[in-house]
């Protein structure tokens, strides 16, 4: 199915996919906040939210309502245009990157094969890195536009941290492209479904990617831009109500995005061990359902890792973070690229 | 300058300066209480640090000059509000030194229990807040889990959980209930495992090491020169503990070690506190084995009887005792002329009470030597040259409490 053949159907199906994916992700984000609170409570011998709904299950709705009804304050000393724009810039990239992430094997609807990805780009991974690196603008602009000292420090930290770790992120996956010869995420998943997961082929790249993903999403031990005990609240100190909520959703959406990316690049996407693409195809549309469940399980497990780490370890210092990035991870990532290149020499020649 | 609260620093509001003046506190999340630091930053590096204290000043020393000797006890609760029991013990011992009264052996043992429970509780909070400031939030709630147990024990001791006011001149307010001992025994048995748990969380954590090792080093000379006491002094490698140097309240009977640091950095101070909690548990176990029976208040001799509160049972049944209680409680007791200084090893350091009496019903001068006040002096010396994040490590490792710093 393509745009030139059946334009209306193509637009309709894609709109449906966009709406479904966005809403599913936003709901997952809302419940990730609840999960964060429940898991941290469980780790700390507390009960956690349990007043709103059974087991606190309506807590995200209560939180959202609270954010909506808070007064929207714009302090007098800020740069108004950028101050209002920053939360949007922080949130949008984390939602846009979801467009290229394949979530399940293709489904067949009324004789048409529909790929389970919004935009099956040939340069999917490049698009993804290009968009996700825009998120740093949201944080930096928020810090700068607030015209206040603590947010400024947070914004400066964010720009240095996120740009440095962007590099490790990119370098760590270079090996995968060399081995697979494609930048298309669908192909990378398909190769893993019929072969071995990339985390076994590229273990070093996997570890570097995971570390860089923590830094990119500003989560502990790399939450320096918003280190609440150092910079009060970092770049979002001056923000309140829904604008603060957008930073908040942006953080969890970014967590979701990176978890999905880890699943797709390293953990086989929708693959289940000992199942090949023929097995999925033989199951028909049920194969897509099974694949989607498998994919979501991996994503949620990785999000649990995010939460687990956050409530376990202390935070790095600014210079230590930079040292780790430039002096440890970057050389390892470069060496890893070279080694992967040597292993793949015969294939190329 | 009309406003005496204006900090005496030359703040250059130079718009062309590359440096940034930043106001940390008094409402900053990690200047616990109301400490204010004015920092001059070059990027992330601190060039200068001006600590500003006094936001919690309540004129306790002046109040002490107008209240009777007994009436000041509740005020001591609010000095180091993380270890009110230890403050009560310190004040009672200072008064007894002035009035030449000696508490009976059982009261002494009870006071040791109080002081050590308070030490554990204060160190737990210090450790939890320290770890939380460096980002390990879970530690904070773990230590509060154990503090909750200690509060329950304290509730059994004196009925209150926080504002204890438990000691009286000549003894303690009431005897320990029988069911207290098995509870304390259970706590003493379980607590060392919990300390191991904290160590598993922090001592074996690489990030914790890089954040605290060689950060905020206090040299021996600096520590002595600024009058540091408690774990901060011992962390710098100086073996001084009032409990060993000038034993009081029967501390000479108990066997315990005083942990000493070697480098004087934030990590050493952390290790000292961890070990002190273990040693306090050890002391508690010994007190449990050896606590004598007998009176909890010294009511021997005619002279003595005029100084101390009578038995509550007798007050309710005996006319003389009722009058006596009334006299002590309202008219107060007079202390002989003279002046004393008594130093108590509080969790944060040496808590000293200087009392001068002119033979009145109240103190002529009551001066409190708060350990946090002396300990905070070190900030100006050691903070410059560190990163902003290190300020949190240093503040956490100094473990101050503004209630006793500002008094």
Give a verbal description of the structure.
The complex is a heterodimer of chains A (349) and B (407). The longest helix of chain A has 37 residues, at 7-43. In chain A, strands 1-2 form a two-stranded antiparallel sheet. Chain A has one domain. Chain A starts with 6 loop residues before the first helix and ends with a helix. Helices cover 66% and strands 3% of the residues of chain A. Chain A has 349 residues and is mainly alpha-helical. By secondary structure, chain B is mostly helical. Chain B is 49% helix and 12% strand. Chain B has helices at residues 60-66, 73-77, 84-99, 105-133, 137-158, 180-202, 206-212, 220-225, 231-235, 242-245, 266-290, 302-307, 312-317, 319-331, 371-376, 378-382, 388-398, 402-406, and strands at 20-24, 36-42, 45-52, 167-168, 171-172, 338-346, 349-357, 365-369. In chain B, strands 1-2-3 form a 3-stranded antiparallel β-sheet. Chain B starts with 19 loop residues before the first strand and ends with a helix. Residues 1-5 of chain B have low confidence and may be disordered. The A-B interface holds A 40, 43-46, 149-150, 153, 156-157, 220-221, 223-224, 227-232, 311-320 and B 20, 22-23, 28-30, 43-44, 131-138, 141-142, 145, 201-202, 205, 207-208, 210-211, 387-392.
């Amino acid at each position: 199915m393509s745009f030139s053949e059946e334009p209306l159907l193509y637009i309709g199906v894609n709109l449906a996919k966009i709406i479904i994916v966005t809403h599913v992700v936003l709901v997952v984000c809302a419940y990730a906040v609840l999960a964060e609170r429940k898991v941290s409570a469980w780790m700390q011998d507390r009960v956690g939210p349990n007043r709103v709904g059974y087991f606190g299950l309506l807590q995200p709705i209560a939180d959202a309502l609270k954010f909506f009804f808070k007064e929207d304050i714009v302090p007098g000393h800020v740069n108004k245009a950028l101050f209002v724009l920053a939360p949007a810039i922080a949130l949008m990239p984390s939602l846009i990157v979801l467009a290229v992430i394949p979530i399940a094997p293709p489904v067949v609807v009324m004789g048409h094969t529909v790929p389970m990805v919004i935009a099956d780009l040939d340069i999917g991974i490049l698009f993804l890195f290009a968009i996700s690196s825009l998120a740093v603008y949201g944080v930096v602009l928020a810090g700068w536009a607030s015209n206040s000292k603590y947010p400024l420090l947070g914004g400066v930290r964010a720009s240095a941290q996120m740009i440095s770790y962007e590099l490790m992120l990119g370098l760590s996956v270079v090996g995968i492209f060399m081995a697979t010869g494609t930048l298309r995420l669908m192909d990378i998943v398909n190769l893993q479904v019929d072969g071995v997961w990339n985390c076994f082929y590229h273990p070093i790249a996997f570890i570097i990617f995971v570390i860089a993903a923590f830094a990119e999403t500003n989560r502990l031990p790399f939450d320096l831009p918003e280190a609440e005990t150092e910079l009060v609240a970092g770049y979002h100190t001056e923000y309140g109500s829904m604008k603060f909520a957008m930073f908040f959703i942006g953080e969890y959406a970014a967590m979701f995005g990176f978890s999905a990316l880890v699943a797709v690049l390293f953990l086989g996407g929708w693959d289940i061990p000992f199942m090949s693409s023929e097995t999925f195809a033989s199951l028909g549309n049920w194969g897509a359902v099974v694949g989607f469940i498998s994919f979501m399980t991996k994503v949620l497990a990785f999000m649990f890792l995010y939460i687990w780490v956050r409530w376990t370890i202390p935070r790095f210092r600014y210079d230590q973070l930079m040292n780790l990035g430039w002096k440890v991870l970057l050389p390892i990532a470069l060496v890893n690229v070279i080694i992967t290149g040597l292993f793949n020499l015969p294939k190329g020649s | 300058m009309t406003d005496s609260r204006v900090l005496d620093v030359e703040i250059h509001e130079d718009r062309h300066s590359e440096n940034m003046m930043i106001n940390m506190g008094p409402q900053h999340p990690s200047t616990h209480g109301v400490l204010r630091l004015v920092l001059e930053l070059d990027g992330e590096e601190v060039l200068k640090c001006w600590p500003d204290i006094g936001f919690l000043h309540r004129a306790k020393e002046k109040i002490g000059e107008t209240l009777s000797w007994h009436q000041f006890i509740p005020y001591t609760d609010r000095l180091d509000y993380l270890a009110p029991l230890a403050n009560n013990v310190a004040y009672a011992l200072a008064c007894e030194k002035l009035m030449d009264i000696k508490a009976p052996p059982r009261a002494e043992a009870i006071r040791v229990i109080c002081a050590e429970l308070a030490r554990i509780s204060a160190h737990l909070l210090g450790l939890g807040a320290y770890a939380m400031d460096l980002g390990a939030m879970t530690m904070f709630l773990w230590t509060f889990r154990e503090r909750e147990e200690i509060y329950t024990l304290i509730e059994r001791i004196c009925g209150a959980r926080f504002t204890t006011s438990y000691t009286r001149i000549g003894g303690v307010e009431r005897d320990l209930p029988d069911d207290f001992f098995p509870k304390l025994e259970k706590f003493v048995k379980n607590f060392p495992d919990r300390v191991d748990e904290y160590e598993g969380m922090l001592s074996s954590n690489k990030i914790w090491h890089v954040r605290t090792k060689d950060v905020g080093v206090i040299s021996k000379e600096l520590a002595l020169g600024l009058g540091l006491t408690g774990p901060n002094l011992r962390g710098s490698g100086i073996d001084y503990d009032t409990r060993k140097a000038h034993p009081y309240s029967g501390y000479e009977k108990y066997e315990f070690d005083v942990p000493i640091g070697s480098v004087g950095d934030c990590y050493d101070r952390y290790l000292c506190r961890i070990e002190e909690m273990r040693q306090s548990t050890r002391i508690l176990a010994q007190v449990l084995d050896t606590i004598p029976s007998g009176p909890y208040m010294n009511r021997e001799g005619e002279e003595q009887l005029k100084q101390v509160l009578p038995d509550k049972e007798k007050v309710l049944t005996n006319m003389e005792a009722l009058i006596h209680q009334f006299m002590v409680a309202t008219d107060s007791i007079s202390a002989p002329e003279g002046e004393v200084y008594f130093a108590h090893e509080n969790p944060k350091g040496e808590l000293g009470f200087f009392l001068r009496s002119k033979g009145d019903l109240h103190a002529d001068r009551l001066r409190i030597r708060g350990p946090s006040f002396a300990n905070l002096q070190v900030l100006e010396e050691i903070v410059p040259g560190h990163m902003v994040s290190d300020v949190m490590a240093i503040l956490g490792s100094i473990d101050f409490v503004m209630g006793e710093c500002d008094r």
